[in-house]
Write a structure and sequence with these properties.
The structure holds 2 protein chains of 2 kinds.
Chain A: H1 3-9, H2 14-50, H3 61-71, H4 85-116, H5 119-134, H6 137-156, H7 159-164, H8 176-201, H9 204-212, H10 217-228, H11 230-246, H12 249-254, H13 268-273, H14 279-285, H15 293-327
Chain B: H1 12-16, H2 30-64, H3 67-71, H4 87-118, H5 122-137, H6 140-151, H7 173-198, H8 201-209, H9 214-225, H10 227-243, H11 246-251, H12 265-271, H13 277-284, H14 293-325
The chains are: A mainly alpha, B mainly alpha.
């Protein structure tokens, strides 16, 4: 055996082990820095050509993407022109609405699981939540595109409604409503898991004290337990926002794939049925065109925004949970 | 316990639901009654949704899933009858999972051990921990684009293959597996770190008292005692990898069959392209090209079965651990 190997086989001295382990751990840091750097470098050309008006409104992103794809390898400067407002709007709309719904649902569901449910039902709900959280997004997308979209398109959207907006968009059923419903089901379990943990960590004597002071049990839960766990609940919402922001496959399958900005001009129902496109789903939809430099750069710019968004959300989650640490409540 | 406490409320929970004597919902304010109804309906609705999903896919599975699908290779065809099964996607899923876990496990366990056992300098260990949190919060689609950027560098050619124009294709099992390891990293890391932190101090002290060095303590005492935590983490990581579509769609090429590159058998497969169950479902749904919903349903049923089994496994490991040591396995964020 070569002497180097023999030396490695012997028990390691502590300092060497510490340095080796530390060096390997630093690899994670290098990966994250590399990720930001690579994505930023690839995203730079499109920001260079468009500036901050990249985020503004203007001609539809789809026509811009098609032009980018057709210019081929040597893209002229004009090919980089992109106004991504409809995509940003679609992303914000789906995320905000889904997180709002999921917050309410998951708060009440967590109260139910932690405080109200009979023991047998509680034992059932925990695996159910875990299952809902671990169903792959493509399966949710499949349910959406094969079950919910045809249902909405055939039974909810009336012919008159289709007629009224036929000049600008086609109402097939794929759109805001189905996207938000599925997205809510996808992110609620994550929030429930975290909220349940936080609610269970609040000492039950606090709540019992409130009941002893004359509050009814449910009011005591809302006024004491939920209030004490509030930072953790908000942090859960922040984490779920990150999930919703980055969901690509499911939204690409059920959102109708059109960079339309849903508006209330034709009433609430049309608003709910109108198709849209989000940042993450755009990357999936236009993945074939990544080799065209202008389109590739635009998609990397989208990725950079998602990355930064996730980063900001991580920091927010950390800051929100700080007061919890002070009260020594786990969350 | 009950002998020590003079008044024990065995039925405390029943009282809180309002079935006790003290307070019944009928005497509550309307606001609270509505909240009570909302809480119950939210909990029941979630159970119903999960039940509906499982029942629907069980029905579709009985309808479309045939054993022959699992053992026949996919074929390009216009009709659903002629397009074959999903043997290749199944193998692709397994291969990708193996690559991802093999790459993620050492990295995750090493950083968990370093952070909880050494962790000096303090700022560096904090930074690494936050980095892993950032990786956990990064959307898979962004990780996929990052992987494409890395593996299309010209010196990364050996990991995929060169296209006819001379550019590096950048899509292969290795490329996708490497990015999958980033997806699996956070759960393995979190589970291992939580396990190490829950190891009682006297275990370490006993090892030190016997004259063991820190490294030997880690290898002979700590790592064996957090084995089930690592198993939980790995299971969670596997279920993440199996369920991920975005990375597969971008980084594995879009050939239905496993196509190896080069003549070396094992390496050729890793450098080659293929598909997984998730990308098979995606491609065969109306959202992809081949509109073969029956095949998509069948593959989705298999996918769900995998996920269900992994969930059961996590629960089993947790219960086993609890019985063995009295410590519950922290399963980390779902």
């Amino acid at each position: 055996m070569p002497p180097v190997l023999a030396r490695l086989r012997k028990p390691w001295p502590d300092t060497r082990a510490e340095r080796t382990l530390g060096a390997v751990s630093c690899l994670v840091g290098v990966l994250v820095v590399g990720m930001v750097a690579f994505v930023a470098v690839h995203a730079w050309p499109t920001f260079e050509h468009n500036g901050l008006s990249w985020l503004g409104s203007g001609p539809s992103p789809e026509s811009a993407f098609e032009k980018m794809q057709s210019t081929g390898v040597d893209a002229p400067a004009s090919a980089y022109h992109l106004r991504a407002w409809p995509l940003l709007y679609g992303t914000l709309l789906t995320t905000v609405v889904a997180v709002a719904f999921a917050s309410v649902v998951s708060l009440f569901a967590s109260i139910f699981i932690v405080e109200l449910a009979p023991e047998r039902l509680r034992r059932l709900t925990i695996p159910v939540i875990r299952l809902l959280a671990s169903v792959p997004s493509v399966v949710y997308g499949l349910i959406g595109v094969l079950v919910l979209v045809p249902f909405v398109g055939n039974h909810l959207v009336t012919a008159a409604e289709k007629e009224s907006v036929a000049s600008s968009i086609e109402l097939t059923g794929a759109g805001l409503l189905v996207t938000v419903v599925i997205l809510t089901v996808m992110i609620a379990p994550i929030m429930i898991a975290l909220t349940c943990e936080a609610l269970a960590a609040v000492p039950s004597s606090w709540r019992e004290g409130a009941i002893a002071l004359g509050l009814n049990p449910l009011r005591a839960i809302l006024a004491v337990t939920v209030r004490a766990a509030r930072p953790a609940i908000v942090a859960a919402a922040v984490l779920a926002t990150g999930r919703a922001l980055g969901e690509a496959i499911m939204i690409s399958m059920v959102s109708g794939g059109r960079a339309f900005t849903p508006n209330l001009d034709h009433g609430l129902l049309i608003f709910l049925y109108s198709p849209l496109r989000t940042f993450a789903s755009t990357i999936v939809d236009f993945r074939e065109g990544l080799s065209a430099p202008a389109l590739g750069s635009s998609l990397y710019a989208i990725a950079l925004l998602l990355l930064l968004g996730g980063f900001v959300l991580s920091v927010c989650g950390y800051l929100i949970k700080l007061p919890l640490r002070r009260y020594q409540v786990r969350g | 316990m009950s002998t020590l406490v003079p008044f024990e409320f065995d039925d405390a929970r029943a009282m809180h639901t309002g079935r006790g004597r003290r307070s019944s919902p009928t005497s509550w304010r309307w606001r609270d009654r509505i909240a009570l109804v909302l809480a119950w309906s939210a909990g029941i609705t979630l159970c119903l949704i999960a039940g509906a999903i499982v029942a629907y896919f069980a029905f579709r599975g009985v309808q479309y899933l045939r054993p022959s699908l699992l053992f026949s290779r996919p074929q390009a065809s216009t009709s659903q009858a002629g397009s074959g099964g999903f043997l290749d996607p199944l193998l692709g899923t397994m291969l990708l999972t193996a690559v991802g876990i093999v790459l993620a496990l050492p990295l995750a366990v090493t950083s968990a051990v370093w952070i909880s056992e050494y962790g000096r300098p303090k700022w560096l260990s904090r930074a690494i921990e936050s980095c892993i949190e950032i990786v956990a919060g990064t959307p898979d689609i962004v990780i996929a684009l990052f992987g494409l950027a890395v593996f299309q560098l010209s010196f990364m050619g050996p990991f995929s293959f060169k296209a006819s124009g001379g550019g590096v294709y950048g899509r292969s099992f290795l490329a996708a597996g490497a990015m999958m390891s980033l997806i699996a990293l956070p759960p393995i890391f979190a589970a291992t770190r939580d396990g190490l932190q829950a190891v009682p101090a006297h275990l370490r002290e006993a090892a030190f008292a016997l004259g063991k060095t820190r490294v030997t303590t880690i290898r002979r005492v700590l790592l064996p005692s957090v084995r089930s935590n690592m198993a939980t983490g790995v299971t969670l990581g596997i279920s993440r990898i199996i369920g991920d579509t975005a990375i597969v769609v971008l980084l594995l090429g879009e050939s239905l069959r496993l196509e190896s590159q080069g003549s070396v058998p094992g390496v050729g497969l890793l450098r080659g392209t293929g598909s997984t169950l998730t990308s098979f479902v995606f491609d065969n749904s109306p959202a992809g090209e081949g509109a073969a919903p029956q095949k998509a349903y069948a593959a989705a049923v298999v996918l769900l079965l995998f996920v269900l089994c992994l969930n059961l496994l996590v629960e089993r490991i947790g219960r086993h651990q609890e019985r063995a040591t009295g410590l519950s396995v922290a399963t980390g964020a779902v």
